[in-house]
DNA sequence: CTGGATCCACCAGGATACTG
DNA sequence: CAGTATCCTGGTGGATCCAG
């Protein structure tokens, strides 16, 4: 979502730049490799920096720090620093972050319900499409 | 989502590979630059190939063709070929594609409702986080 | 322990040209 | 009209080293 665009459509009649469409911006954020995963990890309980790293073993420290910063800038998570030595930083969900997770609920259910069928279709891709058409 | 992972967490206690998590797969698909846009364009009515290109001016033919193929392989859209000369190919939503759009509804509403506040927070990023914390 | 800074590999995706 | 093939660039993100 870095390229300049000039499309006049997006969603629900959104008629501005593609890059200013709210839905696009949200998907750009949670659609990346780590944001959603972090949000869902923090849903259960606040975590410290390295605890998050352990909960998501394959994230690099760079992406962990960067993604957390972005999520905080968006007000989706909070960050609390204990000025001890060594320092201890804790992250947790904000109300806004929680509301996002709630809004994701139906999508999550859909994903779990449809995943097997989609994977089956994808496997025999190239053949006829199996989905029932809305229009002929 | 091309990198091999071995994480043991994902969503709702999903305990397989990150890459096999249904929600990750769905987000990988609709989170890309064009899929959701195409789905929403097709929601209103079926479109022909070049009509889609005109509805979304800044998509390249390569990405248009590629994204359509993937969406079809996942059974989210159907593809109908008229063997005329010149050929005419029409795309439209399947029932599954429509159900995905429905599942996206709450997220879309959330995005529109939260976008202004998020952008405001993002602008003065670096300052204190404004979201109300769930936990202190 | 919690990051920032830097270097670099990889690949998604745009431009262009060509085919059925 | 509806794609496919090829080349090439720029951004994403991993690895590594450094700092508070």
Automatic annotation (TrEMBL), chains A, B:
Keywords: DNA-binding, Transcription, Transcription regulation. The keyword Acetylation does not apply. PROSITE patterns: HTH_HXLR. It comes from the Bacteria. Residues 21-119 form the HTH hxlR-type domain. Gene3D superfamilies: Winged helix-like DNA-binding domain superfamily/Winged helix DNA-binding domain. InterPro entries: HTH_HxlR (IPR002577), WH-like_DNA-bd_sf (IPR036388), WH_DNA-bd_sf (IPR036390). Pfam families: HxlR. This is HxlR family transcriptional regulator. It comes from Roseicyclus mahoneyensis.
